[in-house]
Amino acid sequence: MSPIEALYIGGEWVAPDGGHYAVTDPATEEVVGLAPEASRAQVYAAAEAARAAFATWSRTAPEERAAILDRAATLMARDADAHARLARAESGATTATARGMQVAVAAARFRRYARGALEPVEQALPPQINEAGPMGPSGVVGALAVRRPVGVVACITSYNNPWANPAGKIAPALAMGNTVVVKPAPQDPLSVYAMTRALAEAGVPAGVVNVVTGSAPAVGEAAVDSPEVDMVSFTGSTAVGQAIGAVCGRAMKRQLMELGGKGAALVFEDVDDRGLDAAVRGIGTTFSFYSGQICTAPTRVLAQRPIHDRLVEKLAAYARVLTVGPPAERGTVVGPVISAAHRDRVEGYVALGLKEGARVVAGGERPAGPGLERGFYVAPTLLADCAPGMRVVREEIFGPVVVVVPFDDEEEAVALANDTDYGLIDYVWSGDVARAFRLAGRLRSGGVGINTIGRNMEAPFGGFKRSGIGRDVGSYALHAYSELQAVVWPGG
Questions:
Q1: pTM for this prediction
Q2: Which of 144, 161, 286, 409 has its CA 20 to 30 A from that of 32?
């Protein structure tokens, strides 16, 4: 029987005021389970429970917080097979992705922030020698900068990774002594309830973690505007982030926003054959990884003209050999996108690209074949002959679609890369590493990958411009979920 979930408020499983809604498997269009529809009053009650728990949890010894987070990681890993099956069913991720990049990464993040709870929060500042004056006699004044928890954090997560994304918010927030109200994406919330059960079994005190869900925008709106919420951590579209930011601005709430992206991959003519193949593999992950539903994807390829045609040919060949199919099948590389509406949106962008003058080099048609009669599948699609002003070049498609724009020299490449509303992660492939590092300094993005799409999970993550506000990952997440307090005292 499909799971029927309840809200988790103040350490209790609570029946939802609004009943339940169906969570659909993007591959089969069958019901995976029923998620609770919270009322605005229940969201407010969750925030009030988090506020009541904050006083005690924020004063809990870091060692105790660390032990709970570590136990939670162990419990998540213990049930990894079941968690991966659930994540695959509700998100459409392939088996390998659900296991390795969703559940395993979530457990690793709880383990990382178990250690993070033990990181020092005080930074000693140089003593200051004050002359006698209106503020008092002469003397030496000492000072500390101390990181304190923000308070109650609303964690509003995206649909593309129902394990790693919530874990990346909940774990560092708890490590710093905050309490949380978690509002998962409506498309795949069931995994967050599985995570919550692991946290409860690990011994998280009542009210420290609260989970509310709903298909209606009102649930997320209540999580943002609750007077008990001190900070909103949001991952999702720029448009929704702007609406959240307006509410937070009026109430002076702290924000951490990881929003849209339209990452540029600059590929220069000096790459050798090995480097070109590496660029193709890196860019090609857009076609497969989460079916392109990832904000860090290098979806906008800027190719220097002498290498342009070879790069397009290799990218097209890469896209054509990727197996599109049911996520549970062993050979599947590309699964479905999250919903019928999103499939239609992605296909609409491909049609728009053709209308704008782009050329479909690979894909462009809805995939067909055994196992694809149902489900929300989109073929990996490569668009060439693109111009900078096209909407397919400027707007985030959030699907397995890559656009290619040619350039002549460095100056044009940098100008094209920066000619965007976004600025999350860009990439540079060049045989001249020194040039690549120099160009990185001119790219207006929160991260730059040089000859790689890999990430260092201790490096700060976040975006420039409309790609977000703030930084997280590693110790930067601990800083994001804390406030700085100055403590000053007179010397002897």
A1: 0.96
A2: 286
